[in-house]
Amino acid sequence: MSRNLAPRCADRRPFAWWVVSLEAQGTVMTVEGELDFASSGRFAADLAALGADATQVIVDMAGVGFIDATAVGAMLSVRQLFATWGVTLSVRAPSRQVRRVFGLCEIDHLIGPPDVGTAAVELAG
What residues contact 45, with CB distance under 8 A and at least 6 apart? Predict the structure, then answer.
């Protein structure tokens, strides 16, 4: 099963888009593009909705070229919601930009060391 969930602009490609798939490790949301103020609300809503039917949600961020504090805050809010539901939120293959912003926000420990590669790293509190 794969669903394409993304905000759409009337005349051009969205700034960020994501596809949801079921894998052996859990429900995976593969994100590409720019996660910012314009896309973070929809991103958080779609991510939170995945927790209703899953015990493990993985966000693959290899294709994220830009992420701002709004999107980081959205992820942390969803992480808190998932904790109340007993759902684990993990990040897989964060891009260099994602690692940099998580580091600047001093939450880089949430995505693990740089040598993790494609393994999913739990966003632990």
Answer: none
The pairing of beta strand 2-5 with beta strand 16-23:
antiparallel
Angstrom distance (rounded) from CA 118 to CA 60: 9
User: Token digits for 21?
Assistant: 């798939």
Residue 32, domain extent: 16-122
- Residue 84, domain member (yes or no): yes
The mean predicted confidence, pLDDT, of the chain is 83
Segment 65-117, tens digit of pLDDT:
999 999 999 999 999 999 999 999 989 999 999 999 998 988 877 664 443 44
Can you give the pLDDT at residue 110? Answer: 67
Listed as own residue / partner, the contacts of 11-18 with beta carbons closer than 8 Å and 24 or more positions apart are: 14/39, 15/39, 16/43, 16/64, 18/43, 18/46
| 88 belongs to a structural domain | yes
What domain count does the chain have?
A: 1
